[in-house]
Every structure is written in structure tokens, then in C-alpha cells.
Amino acid sequence: MADREFRAVALAAERGDRRLFDDIDFTLSPGQLLQVSGRNGCGKTSLLRILSGLSRPVAGQVYWGDEPIQSVDGGTGSCLGYLGHQNALKEDLTAEENILIAGGLGGGRPDREDVLAMLASLGLAGYEDLPVRYLSQGQKRRVALARLLLQPRPLLILDEPYAALDVQVIEVLRSAIEAHLARKGMIVITTHQAVDIDGDCHNLRLG
Amino acid sequence: MSERGIQWFRFTAPANFYDLAGRLIPWFAALTIALFGVGLYMGLVVAPSDYQQGDSYRIIYIHVPTAWMGMFLYVLMAIYAAIGLIWRIKIAEIMAKSIAPTGALFTFLALWTGALWGRPTWGVFWVWDARLTSMLLLLFLYLGYMALHAAIDDRQRASNASAVLAMVGVVNVPIIYFSVHWWNTLHQGASITVTEAPTMAMIMFVTLMIMVLATWVYSIAVVLARARVELLERERTARWVQERLEGERR
Amino acid sequence: MMEFLAMGGYAPYVWGSYLVMAGLLVVEMLQLRFRRRSLMDWIRRMARLRVQEENQ
Amino acid sequence: MFRPLLALLRRDLTLALRRPQDALTVVGFFVVVVALFPLGIGPDPEFLRSLAPGVLWVAALLAVMLSLERLFSDDYRDGTLEQMLLVPEPLGLLVLTKIFAHWLITGLPLVLISPLLAVQLNLRPEEILILMAALLLGTPILSLIGAIGAALTLGLRGGGVLIALLILPLYAPPLILGAGAVDAVMHGASAQAHLSLLGAMMVFALFATPWATAAAVRIMLD
Fold first, then answer.
1. Would you call C22 helix, strand, or coil by DSSP?
2. CB D66 within 8 A of CB D143
3. Of chain B residues 120-159, which have a CB less than 8 A from chain C?
4. Residue D89, φ and ψ in degrees, nearest 5
5. Superfamily of domain A1-79+157-207
6. Which of D14, D83, D90 sits opposite A88 (nearest CB)?
7. Beta-carbon neighbour count of residue C28 at 10 Å?
8. Three-state SS for A157?
9. Is the minimum CB–CB distance between A58 and chain D shorter than 8 Å?
10. Chain D residues 157-196 within an 8 A CB cutoff of chain B
11. How far is it, in rounded angstroms, from Cα C36 to Cα D123?
């Protein structure tokens, strides 16, 4: 799936006067997973936003292959999918509409059957035509995950994907992650829970 | 050329800039006092009164310099802001932020003196004259820039966002000026254009230039002083700040 | 002298301009000075607190 | 290339249709403000007529300005704006699409309702035609410039008031040209110069402002 490495070189970030982290270096090859851990407020989310090109680091650079992440050929979004704290769902649209529109925005032509199947596999069968505002927190998170998993991107950056999920869904997500790694995808993830994933996993501790 | 390039780069390092500005400010301050002294003496005492406007014309010696300074500082601010945004040079960001209050002050003074000059000349304090109206809009642009800077807590984001605003503003200034001018000529009935003496006496011209120079030097001194304070505020945890604080007691 | 101050009958306008300008420039400088002083005090205080913390 | 933009346009229009009150509020504001003016300055038809271009334009300008706060803030709050930065499409084009949708929802209704208010203020048919043409060219400029202000105030406390301070000075040129066009016809002159300048300004804004807005969005989401 991915044919190049994802590299971070000497990254540093600040919040106000405080240095969050310094000199973060790593290289991620196709098929590898990087778990970022550390206590609250140590800059995990900042790091993930920098890795996805949303924020600029104080120092250092993120590379997709040889290209800086901000100027990847075809746009930053062509190489990575990002799931932040917010679910990025429109409350007035249904789950299905949300995913279809996001797919269209991403340049794909999402198939309705695939969307329904994905929603069903995440335990949302029967909820697909309800405006998202009527879903619970956990259900919204699942819709966001479904949207992410339906966009084929070589690199997935997941910020606390397990938050607000129940056990069965965690299991589904885990197998999705393993399948992504087996397809030579890459993943950067932060999580509070320890979830054992079969694959080439690495750990980065902040703070 | 390359040597000068290196020099310039050296002074963009915060500590160097701080020291250099500290050394320059007294000179500019002294020059300001001298120029204002000479200019005021010539403008208020030596220069003869105008045969048409009497002594009220003497306001020109501060109206014109403040108006020029107000406009020029906005452009300069936008240039520094652009440099700071594009090349991420901290000193340029600080300079842009430090220029704004002085620029706004001069723009306000241009309006104030314009109004006080207008009263004896036109009979009213305010006419919607093209120049006064564009100066008023310029003042609003300054106020918007400062308000945006103040509204954003994160310093880097505040600099970047207000830099975008300054650049948008500077593109708009000529458009605003042109359209206001055009609007004004279309509504000719309501306004009276500023009567400028066709041939300005030499002494008046020299005095005016001295006053222009004085506001220049004043602006440089005050902006550098403010930039030093801003720099200290931004870098208060840096080691060079601590070192310099040991050195200077007040 | 009185004649000079009278400005040919335009005293309020001429002096109104000059004095307001002088006043505002002075205010600007004083404000800057005040800001610098309070910032210096603040930085010194922080440095003192840091030393105190290290000694404990 | 254009499919993502169409998807975004359709999304924004769908959302607006599901909450029509948002767009209607803007039109309502426009109508109410114009209706208040005669109460303030007296019912003399000739006097009202002479003030009509300015009144209509200032009211339209304020209505557009009030609606701007919604342009990005909903997407900002729920995180969809963040996802838009990760779309392979250039952000400037996405922003332009959003502005276009916003104009269709708020600017166009203002143009369409303006004849009704113009009649109340005693404008003649040919003047109303010019008014609509000027608003048709001018309201997009207002939306385009305003989008910069909307992006720069994302996530700030008191953003609505700040927008006004940031962009109202920039609204002076379209206001002068737009109201001037109607004024010119009223005084028996041609409005052609005004309208062509307004058109030129719109083209310029169309090409220049989306990039500034995109830069502002990136900065505020940094």
C-alpha cells in the first residue's frame, strides 16, 4: 500500500512559553505501527497534528518519502487520514450522508453498499439514516471511524481512537488496524488503554 | 554584499537586536529633541504667517508630517508582517507589532490636526474630504490590526493572523484611497478641497521638512524602544534576558 | 509674547493641535516606560522565585 | 477535480436547507433595518428617495456581515474544517466553494428581496434595476472580503464584534461604488462606470481573497 517511509526529523513543539518536546526523530516503514504514549498534557496531540501537517513544528520537519509533509504531490490529504478528538461529523446529516460526502470531498466515489457494510460491521446497522445528532457519543465515534477506514490512505494517524468505544468495537478496530498493517499500511496512534496488536509495533514515549 | 547579508542576519538574533537597539535609541532620542526644537522654533516663530490663512496655516507643520507618517508606517508594518510570516523571522514580527500603536497615534493626530485646521479654513471641524475620510479608514485598519493581535492568546498565532490582516489591508489602502477620492469628486458640492499655496515659501518648505524628519526620528526611537519591550516579553525565559537583567538595574 | 500666544486669533486651533500632539507623544513615551518597568519587575520576581525553589 | 467541490457545495446547501431559519434571519434583519430608517428620519418620500441607495446598501452590508460569523464557525467547532485541510484539493478552492454556497444562501436572497424594499423607499423601476445589478455584483465582494475576517476570528471570544472592526473599513470601496451606481441613475447620469468598476473589483476579489482566507484558516487551526 505505502511505498515510502514516513520520517520525522528533530521535531520540537511549544505551547506558550513551555517546550512540549524536543528532538523527536523516527522513521516508519510500510507495515509498521508507532504508538505514542505519555501522560496527559505532554504534547501527544500536538505531535500528531504536526505529523499530519495541520500544525507547523517550532523546529524540524516531517517527510513523506523525500517530500515535506506540507508539499506532498497531490496534497497532504492524499497520503494520510487523520482522526482527532473531534469526530468531524455534521449533526444535521445522517451517518451515511456524512461518510458519502467526506468520501466525495476526498476525491473518491464512495460506494453506498460499502458504507452500509462498514457501518454494520461497527454495529451501526439500523442507525445509518438517522441524523447524527441522535446518536450517542460512542456511536458518533464509530461513524467517524467508519469514515476513516473507508478512505484508503497509506498512513493513518489516530488520536485516542478507542475513547468512548465498547469492547466489541475495540475488537473490530483492532482487526482493522492489523489488516491495514498487513496491507503494508502505516499507523501512528495514541491511546490510554493497552491494546495488543499483532504486527511490527514500536513505541515512542514523550515527556 | 554577502558580508552585509551576514551582518543583517546577526542582528536578527534576539539578543543582538536588543543590544543594538539599546545603543541606537539614545542617539535617535537626542536627534528627535534637536529636530523638534529647531522645527518648532522655525514653524511657530520664524516662519511668517500666511497672507490668506493667517497663523492657522501653522498647523500644516504637524498635520502633514503626521499624515505621511501614519500612511508610511502602515506600509512598513505590512512589509515587516509579511517578512515575519513568510520567512518566520521573529524580529520582523515584533517590529510589525511595535509599529502599530505609533502608526495609529500619528493617524489619529493627522485627523485631529486636520479637524482643527478645518474649522478656521472651512468653518466646520469635519468635512468628508477624500483625504480625511481615507485617513479615518486607515485609523480603523490600525485599530483592527491591534484588536486582532490582542484578541489571540497564542503569540505565534497572533502574529501570523494579524500579518495576514496587515497584508490584506495594505492591498486595500490604494483601492480605498482611489474609491474615496472618486466618491468625493462626484459629490463635489459638499466639500471644499484643501487650499494649498501654489508656491510655498522656501522657509515654510524647509521647516516642513525638518518637522517630517523629526517625526521620522521620533518614530524610529519609539518603535525600537517598544520592540525591545516586546522582545523581553516574548523571550522572558531565555538566558540572555536573565544575563542582561543582572547587568542593568533599572 | 501675548501676540505670539494669540496666533493671530487662531490660538485655540494652533495650540490645540500642537499641545495635543505633544501631550500624546509624551503619554506614549511614559506608557512605554511604565510597561518596561513593570515587565522588568515581573521578570526579576520570577527569577527570584525560581532561585527560592531551587534552594528549598 | 471538480467533484470534491461539488460535494462540498451540495453539503453546505443541504445543511442550509435543513436549517432554513439561519438564512431567513439574515433576510429578516435586512428588511427590519431598512424599515427602521424612515422611522428615524421621517416619512417625506422625496427625502427617503434620496437616501435610499445608501440605506439599502448599508443595510445589506450589515446583514452580510452578521451572517459571516456562521461561515466557518460551525465547521470549526465540529472538526470538519480541520478535515478539510487534509483533503487533496487546494484549500483556496474549497474556501471559494464555501463562500459561493454562503452567498447563494445569504447574498442572493438579499438581492432578490431588495426591489420590495426599494419600492417602499420610492425608487423608480430603472433605478431598482441598477440597484439589483449593483447588489448582484457587490454582495459577492462583501462575502469574499468578509470571509477573511471570519477566518481570522475563528475560535476567538467576541469574534462577531471583532469581525466588524476588521472588515468594515475594507467594505468602503464596494459601498461607495454600489450606492454610487444607484445615485448616478437617480441624477440622470449613467451607472456604467460604477458597475464596471464593481465588476472589476469582484473579479479581483474572486482571485485574491480565497488564498488570504485559506492562509488565515491554516493559521487559526495551527
1. helix
2. no
3. 120
4. -75, 150
5. P-loop containing nucleotide triphosphate hydrolases (3.40.50.300)
6. D83
7. 17
8. strand
9. no
10. 157-158, 162, 165-170, 172-173, 176-177, 180, 184
11. 59
What is the rounded CA–CA span in Å between residue D69 and residue D164? 10
pLDDT at A73: 77
Chain B positions contacting chain D at CB under 8 Å are 137-138, 140-141, 143-144, 147-148, 151-152, 156-157, 160-161, 164-165, 167-169, 171-172, 175-176, 178-180, 182-183, 186
Which residues share a beta bridge with A62? A8
The cell numbers describing D52, all together, are: 435610499
Across the interface, whether the CB atoms of B236 and A17 are under 8 A apart is answered yes
Measure Cα distances from B221 to B26, B40, B64, D85 in Å: 8, 19, 20, 42
Per-residue pLDDT tens over the stretch C14-50? 888 999 999 999 999 999 999 999 998 888 888 888 8
> Could you state, in order of their start, the residue ranges of all structural domains in chain A?
1-79+157-207, 90-152
- Host domain of residue D36: 3-221
The label of the residue with cell 539599546 reads B22
Number of domains, chain D: 1
C-alpha triplet D172, D178, D181: angle, nearest 5°: 135
CA atoms within 13 A on the CB side of B26: 4
Please give the model's pTM, rounded to 2 decimal places. Answer: 0.91
Residue of chain B minimizing CA distance to C15: B59
DSSP B198-248: SS--HHHHHHHHHHHHHHHHHHHHHHHHHHHHHHHHHTTTSHHHHHHHHH-
User: Which of D168, D197, D219 lies closest to B164 in CB terms?
Assistant: D219
Cβ-based interface (< 8 Å): residues of A facing B: 16-17
Q: Which of A201-205, B21-25, B164-168, D123-127 has the lowest mean pLDDT?
A: A201-205
Higher-confidence residue of B10 and B88: namely: B88
Q: Which chains touch D (3 or more CB pairs under 8 A)?
A: A, B
Q: One-letter amino acid identity for B138?
A: L
CA B159 – CA D56 distance, rounded (Å): 37
Closest Cα to residue D159, out of A88, B101, B147, B158?
B147
